[in-house]
Amino acid sequence: MESYTAIAALSALAQSSRLDAFRLLVQNEPVGLPAGEIAKLLGAPQNTVSTHLSVLQNANLVVSARQGRSIIYRAHMSTLKDLMLFLAKDCCGGHESLCAPLIAELACC
Description:
This protein is α+β, with helices and mostly antiparallel strands. The chain contains six helices and three strands; from the N terminus they run ααβααββαα.
């Protein structure tokens, strides 16, 4: 990941509603959620959530697909992975034992 791509992603996440929406989508992988459901779960107006989702999509953190009359949004997990690797690259000056807790904490399921 290039620095400018990481900056775009971090900038998109640097707003509480967008961060909440993104985390909600990560929690609902791989199925995703329609915009209306995201708005309902966040307790926010649908047009506001749509704007936030657009910002996240422009930063390549979210993908969308039309299903009938709904647009289903999903977290773009490969971008999340790349961002996390970018942030942790060269972690702890190459001391594996210092990075082990971070890696263990990120281990899923």
